[in-house]
Amino acid sequence: MSNPLIHAFFLGRATAEVFYEAVEQTLTETVSNAGKFDAEQRERLRQFTSQVMERAQAAEATAGTGEATTVHQPADLQETIDDLRAEIAQLRSALQKYRSHSE
């Protein structure tokens, strides 16, 4: 290749081909990783949903037999507030006793 113009043409063409192949490989890997990530997230969501449904069904089954623990729901909001105030007063009293004995 004695003609520098022809040499430059083939050099540019080879550079473009190598660059195109590198971009194609990088893009392919990126799309593949995105697809893999999407599939993993869908599987995790499916497993999560399955676990939630299993637990809900188990809780529903035990509730039907009366074995489930009942959640305490006070009938009156004022009663709950009074209970909390009483507990706070007891804690303050115990804290004062502790402080007076430790001094």
From TrEMBL:
It comes from Acaryochloris thomasi RCC1774. InterPro entries: PG18-like. Residues 56-77 are annotated as: Disordered. It comes from the Bacteria. Residues 58-70 have a biased composition (Low complexity). This is Thylakoid lumen protein. Transmembrane segments: none annotated. Pfam families: DUF6825 (PF20711). One of its GO terms (biological process) is thylakoid membrane organization.
